[in-house]
Specification:
about 10% strand, two-stranded parallel ribbon, elongated
């Protein structure tokens, strides 16, 4: 007797056996119970998620000979059910659109559709990879698909939903098949391994489920390969011999070294990844995925639906995420993405990657951005509080008369001095100036060399002309202070002439 692959041997036979597509199975079963059976269905999803299996189950539900009519629970033992499951029923025609793409093929389908089924209630057409049909073939199918004979049902399946014309989609009920989660796949693999007389390690089964990437067929193919090597046991050791460790596991180990500050260990792990044939671009892509998982764990928790982490590795991911600051994880993603772009065109790609890893190994020496923000003055206050004028040092009282000597206390270095050249004659200050418009700078901030070298008692105060104000505001340090504190220059103190400290020329 010929050997039957596990993917065919353990194909789902009824709506209850469908793995990972419960909403679709429930909807179809309820439609059959209510007698609301549509004439056209469109199943879309990635490979190995159950589109063809669901189409055959629906065909069995419509044509089961043990029932007086369509039933959501086909017997799976009558001649019709068995032949449909094997893909050889005379009334359920499976067409591969990839090899039947032309108008002539659809014309033949239309001519045969008018004939009633040989023994079943309905003639069911299952067109796989329907997006491969030509434009002419789609147009030829439109009328028959919209108003088929009452004994004809169409079930279309595709992995490229966007390539199916809108005119076809509008004539069908569309169902999107999701990728199957790792947990349902692992549970099903364990059941199948037991049925095949093999003992499966939970860790090995979990890893197969992760390698399958949402495809039940891919998972069964891997399990089939393992049972060919070790018919009685499915172990991680055998899996490592056939399929090298998953790339995300290698990247995870590398990040563990980085989290511990072990730059040497990280470089060794990178060498192992590259020696296994993984390119630098793919390594960066894998690293971004792992770091994203750590970021989602810190942000949304380990049980968030945004994560696709198997239960066996969940605790390890949680532990590793706790070794990084949130800001570090946010920085690592653009770092790896920038590295991916750079290594594509660089002849020193490996050196760039090693430099990034060494830098990441010293992450804990960086000050988190959150801590820097907390150290800013008035970091927790309102914007109004940050704009308060620094008055006792930012403003002083006007002198009693022009040329009168001022006390040292009246000349705080917090006010912004102007340059000494082209000074206009000093005059009495404007008494109507708004005190709130004083220059907002720290008391110990002195921006120009003149003020640094001049004693405080030699500084005098005077009014500013428009030209002088413009010249002062062109000073880079003054302009920066005004931008930071949202201030306005209203007064300038400059060093007086040494020969006449009490007079202003």
């Amino acid at each position: 007797m010929a050997y039957t692959a596990l993917a065919r041997k353990y194909r789902s036979r009824s709506f209850d056996e469908v793995i990972g597509q419960d909403p679709i199975a429930t909807t179809l079963a309820n439609a059959i119970k209510a007698g609301r059976i549509h004439h056209g269905y469109l199943f879309t999803g990635t490979r190995g998620v159950g589109k063809t299996s669901m189409a055959r189950i629906l065909a069995k539900a419509l044509n089961c000979l043990e029932s007086d009519g369509p039933t959501p629970t086909p017997c799976c033992t009558c001649d019709a059910c068995v032949s449909i499951a094997e893909g050889r029923d005379v009334d359920v025609i499976e067409i591969d659109a990839a090899s039947n793409t032309g108008v002539d093929n659809i014309r033949e389908l239309r001519e045969n559709a008018v004939y009633r089924p040989a023994r079943s209630r309905y003639k069911v057409y299952i067109i796989d990879e329907v997006h491969m049909l030509s434009t002419g073939a789609f147009n030829a199918l439109l009328k028959t698909l919209e108003e088929p004979p009452e004994h004809v049902k169409f079930i279309l399946a595709t992995t490229e939903f966007q390539k199916v014309p809108a005119t076809i989609r509008s004539r069908c009920q569309c169902f999107t098949f999701r990728n199957i989660g790792p947990e349902p796949i692992a549970q099903r693999l364990a059941e199948i391994a037991t049925a095949e007389g093999a003992e499966a390690e939970p860790a090995a089964v979990q890893r197969i489920a992760r390698l399958a990437n949402g495809s039940m067929r891919d998972a069964l193919s891997i399990l089939d390969q393992l049972l060919s090597v070790a018919p009685t046991s499915v172990t991680s050791a055998v899996l490592d011999e056939i399929i090298p460790p998953a790339q995300d596991e290698r990247v995870f180990a590398l990040l563990e070294q980085v989290a511990g500050g072990d730059a040497r260990g990280g470089l060794v792990a990178l060498d192992e990844i590259l020696s296994a044939g993984r390119g630098l671009e793919l390594f960066c892509t894998d690293a971004v995925e792992v770091v994203r998982a750590l970021l989602m764990i810190q942000t949304c928790g380990p049980d968030a639906n945004l994560l696709d982490i198997p239960a066996g590795a969940r605790d390890d991911y949680v532990r590793l995420s706790q070794q990084f600051e949130l800001s570090h994880l946010v920085q690592m993603i653009p770092m790896f993405e920038e590295l991916r772009r750079n290594v594509r065109y660089s002849s020193a790609g490996r050196a760039l990657a090693e430099a990034v890893l060494v830098r990441l190994a010293h992450l804990h020496e960086w000050t988190p951005i959150e801590q820097l923000i907390r150290q800013l003055p008035n970091a927790g206050g309102s914007s109004g509080e940050k704009k308060k004028s620094l008055k006792p040092t930012g403003q002083v009282a006007a002198p009693a008369a022009v040329g009168a000597a001022e006390s040292p206390a009246a000349h705080s270095p917090a006010t912004l001095p102007a340059r000494s050249e082209d000074r206009p004659p000093a005059g009495p200050p404007d008494a109507d100036l708004d005190a709130a418009a004083a220059v907002e700078v720290p008391a110990d901030y002195v921006p120009t060399e003149a003020a640094e070298s001049a004693p405080a008692h030699e500084l005098v105060r005077r009014d500013l002309s428009q030209a002088e104000r413009a010249r002062v505001e062109r000073d880079p340090l003054v302009r920066k202070a005004l931008d930071i504190f949202d201030g306005v220059v209203v007064d300038v103190k400059e060093p007086a002439a040494e020969s006449a400290p009490d007079a202003v020329e």
